[in-house]
Amino acid sequence: MNSTAYEQRRSQIAHYFDRTAAEAWARLTSNEPVGRIRATVRAGRDQMRSTLLSWLPEDMRGLRLLDAGCGTGALALQAARRGAEVVAIDLSPTLVQLAAERIAAEHPQLPGTIRFAAGDMLAAELGHFDHVVCMDSLIHYDTPHIAQALATLAERTRASLLFTYAPRTPLLAAMHSVGRLFPRSDRSPALSPVRGEALQAALQAEPALAGWQAGRTQRIASGFYTSQAWEWHR
Ligand SMILES: C[S@@+](CC[C@H](N)C(=O)[O-])C[C@H]1O[C@@H](n2cnc3c(N)ncnc32)[C@H](O)[C@@H]1O
Fold this sequence. Notes:
The protein has eight helices and seven strands. By secondary structure, it is of the alpha/beta class. The longest helix has 19 residues, at 36-54. The chain starts with a helix and ends with a strand. It binds S-adenosylmethionine. Residues 10, 13-14, 17, 29, 69-71, 74, 89-92, 95, 120-121, 135-137 line the site of S-adenosylmethionine.
């Protein structure tokens, strides 16, 4: 996918996670205490990670997994603990470096391997995978871009694609409009609330997803965190 709109969005997201939010994100994903609201987000994210991991094989020896938009690498770590050969990529070099440092310091010996990279998850050079996981890494893109990104990833994926989207709910719609009151410079890139049916239709219209089918789906809602996990498989 090479559209200008996608590149503009990607560059806003990269700037946000690499500069504006890198410190807050490092703290949220650490073991340090956080405020009450962020604690609900942390709990929701932990639940989401467990859900996605429960949809992957227990024994991942000999399997390649792409942690697409890996952030500080928590999911990559768990997959490598199961023996997977993981590629963990993120747009933010700062977060990728933090992930690599944390994992090297805290888990020097893993049954599997993790190769970290800074860049676009859609890069063809990353190769082919058995499983691809996009945990909350597509939530800032609109439905057509999510569908195109997943179609691009599907061409390189043997078994399953696991991803999350921000479901369109009245609460999210309200938060979205409140977000507009803040000065532009303080705002994160807006979430793109998605209707599951519209996303399913967009995915079914992608030729690269012919032969793929929707599998398990699970919504996680914890305080200020709401996200919907979805499995697609061949
Ligand atoms: C909300 S964070 C989630 C990080 C991680 N998956 C987790 O759950 O802890 C979204 C991440 O996706 C990354 N991201 C967004 N678009 C990307 C792209 N096209 N290629 C690689 N990473 C991307 C962002 O840089 C950001 O670190």
